[in-house]
Amino acid sequence: MDIQVNQRSDYTFKYNQKLARHGWLRLTPAYSVKLVTEMINKISPESFILDPFSGTATTGLVAAEQGLQAHCLDINRFLIWLGNVKCRNYSFSELDDFNQRIKTTIHQCKFLINQECWTPEIYNITRWWSTHTLKIIAALRQALVSEFGEPKEGDVSSLAWVAFCRLVIETSSAAFNHVSMSFHEQVTRYEVEQIEQLYQSILEAIINSISHPLAGKATVFYADSRYSVSNDVKYSHVVTSPPYPNRMSYIRELRPYMYWTKFLDTAKEAGEIDWQAIGGTWGMATSRLQNWDSNGIELSGSLNRIVSQIRESENKNARLMAKYVEKYFYDMYLHFDNLRHNLRDNAVLSYIVGNSSFYGIPVKTEKLLEESLHQLGYTNIGSNVVRKRNSKKELFEYCVYATWKEF
User: Fold this and answer.
1) 163, 203 in Cβ contact below 8 A?
2) 369 close to 382: Cβ distance less than 8 angstroms
3) Is 80 left (phi over 0), alpha (psi -120 to 50) or beta?
4) Residue 189's CB: how many other CB atoms inside 10 A?
5) Angle formed by the axes of helices 58-65 and 33-40, nearest 10°
6) Of residues 84 and 153, more confidently modeled
7) What does the pLDDT read at residue 191?
8) How many CB atoms lie within 10 A of CB 406?
9) What is the rounded CA–CA span in Å between residue 243 and residue 327?
């Protein structure tokens, strides 16, 4: 039976792009501000929200905008930094000082263009930016470092670095219109004045977007969400969207930002982050997957059947993809298992997830996660369709929900 539901672009990252802090940097896997708002709209003021898969901190920022308290978790240091920049309030005095120092930075940039300024070790970097544009961007970066230092936590100068990240991607020839990143045929050449004007306009939009202080408080921490957060923190609500089981690089779109801000130095480090991420398998993560073992933990019979069907399909990567699917749901089981230690009595879980298909074999993510929740003693478990994901009729997003009841 076909499910009749619309694609709902307002429930995707596209809805966020013109919404103040939410639109600073795009990330395709990010879910919609509108969807999160609807999910927490009736939560009481004393609630304590957890997002164990923070990403661009959409949940945390929406919670803070609504006067709520939230903790968010991620394994990516860049996303932790970005999330905390977005969820912070800024005083008039520090912004006034910041604006004066930005003027100094812009002025200094002109004198650095003909010097040898640092550029990241991005493969075939001139495919991203022309040699001429690259010199200007590198000079601007050096001017930022001279005035503010490298990006750091809890400092107003982070706004300058967010604007720089936005500048880097807007002047590049990269296109993120589909799963595999592509490049435009022509690499645009920018002049100094164009770079300066674009950077200043981006920064002005960022400054304007933080004019209204956040009523609540959200903080992003480093953590591996497969394991418990802390023994002394209890949450009343979990609102999140974990990676989907679709073998997509966890940091695909983030790499240019991370290289330029030195949160990432080598492709090996990128593969390491993908390996740590639930559902991430790219580069070294793929080779490590070959030797992965579930340590004897038995999940549902439904998962075993799906894994067997994928393994036995006629495809050269069938065994690898079978193991990928098995590891994804194993990691999510670990997450649900250890999460219980940080939940209040009657805590409510809401997970936005997507189903998948491997070689024509459907992977019903929502049902498999429901089975794990049942195994672990959660109650009031179910799911509903949120939206149709793309032109493939079998791909949807669901909200999987459950309640944790202490016995």
Assistant:
1) yes
2) no
3) alpha
4) 13
5) 60
6) 84
7) 96
8) 10
9) 13
Helices (H), 277-375: 284-289, 301-311, 318-339, 365-375
Residue 146 has pLDDT above 80, yes or no: yes
DSSP sequence for 237-286: EEEE-PPPSS---TTTTTHHHHHHTTS---HHHHHHHHHHSTT---THHH
Are the beta carbons of 220 and 87 closer than 8 angstroms? yes
Q: What is the DSSP string of 155-222?
A: -TTHHHHHHHHHHHHHTS-EE-SSSS-EE-SSPPP--HHHHHHHHHHHHHHHHHHTSSPPSSEEEEEE
Average pLDDT over residues 381-386: 95
Q: Are 94 and 116 in contact (CB under 8 A)?
A: no
CA dist 126 and 407 (Å) reads: 60
Q: Which residues are within 8 A (CB) of 288 and not within 5 positions of it... i.e. 6 or more apart?
A: 275
- List the structure tokens of 230: 């802390």
Backbone angles phi, psi at 261, to 5 degrees: -95, 5
* Distance separating the N- and C-terminal Cα atoms of the chain: 39
Q: What is the pLDDT of residues 29-71, one digit of tens each?
A: 678 888 999 999 889 999 999 999 999 999 999 999 999 999 9
Per-residue b or e along 199-220, where b marks 16 or more CB atoms closer than 10 Å to that residue's CB: beebbeebbebbeeebebbbbb
